[in-house]
Structures are given as structure tokens and as C-alpha cells.
Amino acid sequence: MDYLIRVYTSPIDIPAQDWDALLAKQDAPSPFMQHAYLAALHTSGSATPDTGWTPQFTTLWQGDTLAAASALYIKAHSYGEYVFDWAWANAYADHGLSYFPKATCAVPFTPVPGSRLLAIDAAARQALLQAMLDVAKQHQLSSLHLLFTNPDDRAACDALGLLQRQTVQFHWHNHTPQGQGFDNFDVFLASLSQEKRKKIKQERRRVADAGVIFRTSVGEAISSEDWCFFYQCYERTYLEHGNAPYLNRAFFEHMQRDMPNNWVLFVAEREGQPIASSLVAVQGLGTRDAVAYGRYWGALERVDCLHFEACYYQPLNWCIAHGVQRFEGGAQGEHKMARALMPVPTYSAHWLAHPAFADAVERFLERESAGVNHYLDHLAERSPFKRLELQ
To answer: In terms of C-beta density within 10 A (0-12 exposed, 13-18 middle, 19 or more buried), how is residue 247 classed?
Structure first.
């Protein structure tokens, strides 16, 4: 099949209706791959050449039909990716070679698995990946990386010989490991071991005893005042850790205007004043496949266990009440298992132009993959759920 290849230096130049129609056909769409989200990252100045993210959005066209598309960036660093390759960059530097710039296919600052190679079929997906490799070679880049891929992406990467890497995240599902659903939060707690159930109750009691209550706003009901307060919390958290936030206020203004129905806001209040907030993204709300994504949080006051309440217990309670089937907790965080977020493998794929380094990375990934699988087995033995009684 012959395709017309077009590479865009700004996502806003790609027709939004074509991009989103293609996204809707994928097995693992997410709100973070919507045109409005990617465009907001660019137009707000959050992910642009000035911040080290140079768009090279690669697309395949059949006449006026968008057959395949990817959010591809040329990167001057590895910040905001959450699949860590700093050791690879250091190895290049030790040998007098430049690892940067490189090419990355990902949603900036968003470690959420999902479709990366949007395509109408497997043939178009593989042709898109080949076009992305050609872009990397044309720009004489060190490498190409696809982050947080889905099975269709991985099949295309396997076909073209990319190296596969495995990492671990922690996700909550709205049922026990045996498939029993949760009618309410108390039923969820009852499914846990006594130790974990007691710990959660203690943590929630500390927040309640501190006089903190929560209110929840969904979609367009999130007011401009609430969005402003949320950003104040979000920015404070980054600054307290010595970093400027990845996302600026303008980005969240775009979210309020262009994607309001993909967000749920939890605001903690004490004595009538807001003191903390957490923002959760949602996909497919009201359907059997609804997913929620824990994304951002911040606090203006310190209250013991407030982070756990705002980022886990309030969202999980809301997910149960609204039939959300999965809650993804974001990058890293073994402590999430105590809140019944269970380990799941996540994947990335990598191509390196330098043959010797490609061989070295392949050997490294073989060892790393064995270690990750052992880690997953170890975590599975520490399930927070009650053990089944032997019959």
C-alpha cells in the first residue's frame, strides 16, 4: 500500500476530527492522546522546542483519509518520560558520543499506557513505524523510543526488530482477584487482609479527626475558582521539591475549556477553606470500560495521611460509586499495593542507530527483563487481599 507521509512540526496543524476519529478506532485510546490534549501541551508552551520537545508528528495519508499517526518528538533530554534511559546517555558520553538529540513517541509528562501508533490496520501501523525510523535516520538521531505501548504497538515493533523493555506500574481494579465486584467502599475494604484494612481505616481516621472533609466536582461543574486553586496546589508541590512544574497554568485553562468532561477534582477543606486537591482524568465514563487515571495533586497545609486520602481513597470510593473499572496510579510506587493497587507490566520499545550500543542495550534488557519478572512474582506474593481458604 502506498501512503503519503506528512510530518507536522505542530499538532495543531493536524485536523482534530481526523486525529480523534483514528484514535477512537484503537484498542487502547486514552484522553491523553486526544488532539485537544496534545495541542494544549504545545500551545500552552509546556511541550515545545523551547522545553526540549520538538514535534515531528508523523502521519500516513490515503487521499484525504488519515491512515496512521503518531505523537513523535525530537528530544534534547529525557525529562518527563518516566522510562529511564539516563544510564544509556551516560554510556554514550563515556565513549565520546552524543545520545541527544533522540526521537521519542510518547505523551509528554504522562506515564499512561495506551495506543501510540494510531492506525487503521496492522499494515498501516507497521508502515507508520518505518516512517518514524526514517525520520530518526534523516535527522541523524541516536535512537527512537516508544513509551507505554499497547499490544498492537508491540507487534509492529517486533516486526521491525525494535528492542522491548518492561517496567512496572500499579493499577486498581474494581473487583477482587477472584472477580468479585465492589458494591461500595466497605465491601472493598472487607476484601482486604485484616492488616491492610486496619491500616486504611487508621489513615482515613487521621484525616477525618483533623477536621478535613472533601467535595468532588466532575466535568463542567469544576469551577474556574477550583481550577485556579488546584493549580496553586499543583505548583506548590513541585516548587517544594525544588522544581518548576512541567505543566503551566495555560495548559489547565485549555483542559477546562476543551476537555472538561475528562476530569474529576477532589478538594479537601478544613474549617470551610480549601487546603488540598487532587485531579483525576477519566475515559469512557458511564460505559462498561470506564477508566480513571490518578494524575496530579498538591496541598497548602500538611495533614497526616492527607495524600493517601486525596489521591487514593477518595478516587477509589468515587470509582466504585460510578462503575469505573480501573484506576491507574501512575509511575512507580510500590507503596500503592497497600491501597490495593496491584502490579502490572508496562512496556516500551527502542531502536538505537549505533550497532555496538544496540547490542549492549539488548543484553542489558535481557537481564533487566528477568529481574522485572522476578520482581512481579515477588510482589504477587504480597497481595493485600484476603487469601482464599483451602477447601
So the answer is: buried
**Helix orientation angle between 86-94 and 355-380, rounded to the nearest 10 degrees:** 150
Average pLDDT, the chain: 96
Residues in the chain: 391
Which residue in 260, 261, 265 sits closest to 231, CA to CA?
A: 265
What are the tens digits of pLDDT across the range 70-94? 999 999 999 999 999 999 999 999 9
| Closest to 83 in 3D by CA, of 58, 56, 102 | 102
Question: Can you tell me the distance from the alpha carbon of 176 to that of 339, in angstroms, rounded to the nearest whole number?
Answer: 13
Cis link prior to 101 (omega < 30° from 0)?
Answer: yes
Q: What residues are paired with 184 via a beta bridge?
A: none
pLDDT in tens, 127-148: 999 999 999 999 999 999 999 9
In tens, the pLDDT along 89-101 reads: 999 999 999 999 9
Cell output for 4: 503519503
The span from the CA of 266 to the CA of 293, in Å, is 13
Contact 257, 227 (CB under 8 A): no
